[in-house]
Amino acid sequence: MISLNGATTYLNNSLAGVSKSLSHSQRRVQAPVIVSALSSNNNGPGERNVTLLMETTLKEMREASPVVAVEPKTTTVGGGVEDVYGEDRATEDQPITPWTVSVASGYSLLRDPHHNKGLAFSEKERDAHFLRGLLPPVVVSHDLQVKKMMHNMRQYQVPLQQYMAMMDLQEMNERLFYKLLIDNVEELLPVVYTPTVGEACQKYGSIFRRPQGLFISLKEKGRILEVLKNWPQRKIQVIVVTDGERILGLGDLGCQGMGIPVGKLSLYTALGGIRPSACLPITIDVGTNNEKLLNDEFYIGLRQRRATGQEYAEFMHEFMTAVKQNYGEKVLIQFEDFANHNAFDLLSKYSNTHLVFNDDIQGTASVVLAGLISSLKLVGGTLAEQTFLFLGAGEAGTGIAELIALEMSKQKEAVQQKRNKICEKKTVRIYIRYILMQTGAPVEESRKKIWLVDSKGLIVSSRVESLQHFKKPWAHEHQPVKELVDAVKSIKPTVLIGSSGAGRTFTKEVIEAMSSFNEKPIILALSNPTSQSECTAEEAYTWSKGRAIFASGSPFGPVEYNGKVYLSGQANNAYIFPGLGLGLIISGAIRVHDDMLLVASETLAAEVSQENFDKGLIYPPFTNIRKISAHIAAKVAAKAYELGLATRLPRPNDLIAYAESCMYSPNYRNYR
């Protein structure tokens, strides 16, 4: 008979949850699993613990035929993660039990980042969990902890030191880390992600302390499913994976690219409300071609040249198959910082069989499209009336270009439908259809307004035979042009977009040329980190004489020109992917559709207020990002239901309220 001061039922339910979670393992192990709970009184040492010894025999052997696990029934709370221990079904006022494999207590509780509160443990909790003497006597509030941490963060003069301090905090006190980030998002976003994360990746081998995610290398070929089962969490909903070949604009950083998935998933939680335990960062290590890293004694990855061709394709296929088998069809796999030749192939190959999303191609495109839609309120006209010129024809450039073309086509179709409703005469309708037939497919027509420049110059039809497949749709009739400034003068674009990863390529001559035939030239310098930006905010405003509408990939401070202060926007993917991911999860979507990206862009653009426009901003402030993410999630979920791609039924009546209710809260919970 087990007695836990009236908590017998809770213990039994929790043990069932632990047993259920452990049953997913396919390890050939027969070992006792000890699950203990602590009484809240201070009896003698022999009476402190009530321990239940469960002998669990796992019947699934490793060499048995792989079986696709049936996904267990999930709750709709907390981002859809199964709530084994009742943390989300309880309100924030109700106490919970800090379970690990056993009930965390004493010294182990202070070392558990998921449950540690530091000095915020109450007097009652200190007695119940044997913390007396392990903490100073003072009890502080969560808010005071945040205030203290921000004070400490501001003492660091070097951004990398701030990054390391934030990572240490995440490993020590998870809820304090996320509350700190959420409450100070505009100040800390550049610390936990671009531009600081770029330097962190470059020095990852030197600053590496504790692993944060899974490292899957060629050594694990044929055993990737087994490696995935080593991760302690079973209910994974979002995976961010990189092979480190194209980290931001810094090139091949190999295994040290892990900083990118870790940073992205921190933002999924802080900005999109996805539970931390449902996020899994993964680095695929197939080697590196970076000679500096191969000769670095502190490098933490495989010391060999990159695997390519069939070897690479087979390894990635094993990974994708194992992920789906282990976590089910509805786990979102976000590809991050793969080189162009692999990024497009992976997205094309798996978009019809997995829930996949490439942030460099699709996320960047969506956030840039949002900025363009909102900027039209400053320059006037429609998207179809603009002419676009890109510097850079890789993942980001072609991804943005294609989404712009899709949105232009969508707007044209909407206008045409409106005209058809107005036209009452049959002959007029027939004539309109005839005109449409003569102009070709709408998206192909829209592409003609979009021009791209790569390392060899303007992409034109005379180069089509030598072009990579993803560049061919952008090869238009035009004489060859080598230099960007000559392309600007010839094409006369209204919008200039940089996605080249080549710093300071928007020269004074280029921006002055843009300003010569545009009253308000739209200039987007998107490359990251700051050192790789095509131009700075100061250069854009100064060389355009204050007329440019400017946004960048990495943040720039305010700029004063002729007595006026200009605030530049940041075309940060963090506006899009957290809300997109949340929308996919709450709807139980099984595929990502282009229409979801379009609706995410339109929703973000609608969040820009007149006050923002008056300051020259084409993006809303990050201070409202969780509200923005909830709105994006609701629109994405609605589109998933509309397209028949949602599996979570019935559809909630109020998707915004539902999205907000599913978002993770970093507030401390009371412990029994």
UniProtKB/TrEMBL annotation:
UniProt source species: Rhododendron griersonianum
Record GO biological process: malate metabolic process
Entry binding sites for a divalent metal cation: 336-337, 360
Chain sites annotated for binding (S)-malate: 246, 528, 572
Keywords assigned by UniProt, alphabetized: Metal-binding, Oxidoreductase
Protein name in UniProt: Malic enzyme
Pfam families: malic, Malic_M
Domain called Malic enzyme N-terminal: residue spans: 170-351
One GO CC annotation: chloroplast
Record domain Malic enzyme NAD-binding: where: 361-641
Entries under InterPro entries matching the protein: Aminoacid_DH-like_N_sf, Malic_enzyme_CS, Malic_N_dom, Malic_N_dom_sf, Malic_NAD-bd, Malic_OxRdtase, NAD(P)-bd_dom_sf
Cofactor note: Divalent metal cations. Prefers magnesium or manganese.
